[in-house]
Amino acid sequence: ASCAAENITVVYGMEGDSISVNCTYNPWQQRWREKSWCKQIDETTCQHVVSARRFWLPFLKNRNGTTSISDNIHDGVLTVTMKRLQKKDAGLYQCRTDYLGESNSLRRVKVEVLTAVLETQVPEEPSAVQSIS
Fold it and tell me: What does pTM read for this prediction?
């Protein structure tokens, strides 16, 4: 069975900017489960990026490089922030819960990184507008 039919949210970010992704879950069922953010390498492999610790205060963030994660267990919202986006950050990611070795996907997110276009590349007005003296 292919994962293609599953809902994938696409998030766009500019190179150098930040994006935030919220993954919601049932706080009663899943608040104490370990939550993680991973990057899909192929069909079966999701490479771990960062985990939110259990019993973690919601305002404290766990960080790995430019990616941070925080878990609001009262509202059931896991927030992942990726800063200073680079082209290599693009790809398919998952928010997951891990419990007794079993992983469940909360949300699949495709991150698209757009190259910032410098303003100097915007077509300029024709230069024939100079006043004739």
Answer: 0.78
Phi-psi region of 129 (alpha: psi -120 to 50; beta: other; left: phi over 0): alpha
What domains are there in the chain, each with its CATH number? 16-116 (2.60.40.10)
C-beta separation of 113 from 83 below 8 A: no
Q: How many CA atoms lie within 13 A of 86 on its CB side?
A: 4
User: Tens digits of per-residue pLDDT, 80-114?
Assistant: 999 999 999 999 999 999 888 888 999 999 999 99
Q: Number of helices and strands (H, E) in the chain?
A: 1, 9
* 82: nearest Cα among 22, 31, 25, 26: 22
Backbone angles phi, psi at 17, to 5 degrees: -90, -175
Is residue 106 a contact partner of residue 38, using CB atoms and an 8 Å limit? no
| 122: pLDDT strictly greater than 60 | no
131: how many CB neighbours lie within 10 A of its CB?
Answer: 4
